[in-house]
Design goal:
The complex is a heterodimer of chains A (about 120) and B (about 110). Chain A is mostly beta strands and about 120 residues long. Chain A has no helices and ten strands. Chain A is globular, with a radius of gyration of 14 Å. In chain B, strand 4 and strand 5 form a beta hairpin. In chain B, about 0% of the residues lie in helices and about 55% in strands. Chain B is globular and about 45 Å long. Chain B has no helices and ten strands. Chain B has about 110 residues and is mainly beta. In chain B, the strands form two sheets. Chain B has a five-stranded antiparallel β-sheet with strand order 1-3-8-7-6, with no helix packed on it. Chain B has a five-stranded mixed β-sheet with strand order 2-10-9-4-5, with no helix packed on it. Classes of the chains: A mainly beta (about 120), B mainly beta (about 110). Chains A and B meet through strand 4, strand 5 and strand 9 of A and strand 4, strand 5 and strand 9 of B.
Amino acid sequence: GAGVSQSPSNKVTEKGKDVELRCDPISGHTALYWYRQSLGQGLEFLIYFQGNSAPDKSGLPSDRFSAERTGGSVSTLTIQRTQQEDSAVYLCASSLLEGAQRAQHFGDGTRLSIL
Amino acid sequence: QKEVEQDPGPLSVPEGAIVSLNCTYSNSAFQYFMWYRQYSRKGPELLMYTYSSGNKEDGRFTAQVDKSSKYISLFIRDSQPSDSATYLCAPQSGGGATNKLIFGTGTLLAVQP
């Protein structure tokens, strides 16, 4: 398929461990976004990558969270020393930035559970 | 006050009914307005995309934006059980260094057969 692909679909880990979540955007999309969806909080923005520009990290909740995007394509979101409040669905989206093509297309997310 | 307010529902309607889903927002910089549909354990799926004020129709779906009152609506005609999902409004600012979406909390819709 040509959609946004995320892996793993589910991740269960112990408190204090590090986790890496992967996102494969739609081919040719220059913009990539990470969001977090938790019960009672809705969908919240985490970080945004656009081409070679510095990423917008304004939504990252703490310095335990980081993300990178290699070669303008695949992105990895890393959470260090996980806490129980990090349990959520982490969603990745990609888009172009012109006209109607700026609409963001989402993957099905990684459901993260911290024990 | 949240930037985007949306009634969480749940909203239950009989099959064939017209459904009206609404959001209000506070940021006058929003220029692009999107509606997403999200089924359980799936990612949000883009339904409608509107720029500035006005109406846009796509099949059974109509999106309305009134920037003067900061009010956005999604209408679903002849609703079907397959429309049962959570509907999220998501405005976006134009230009600038980021294009993040600001989501409402979503309205859970159940269409009863």
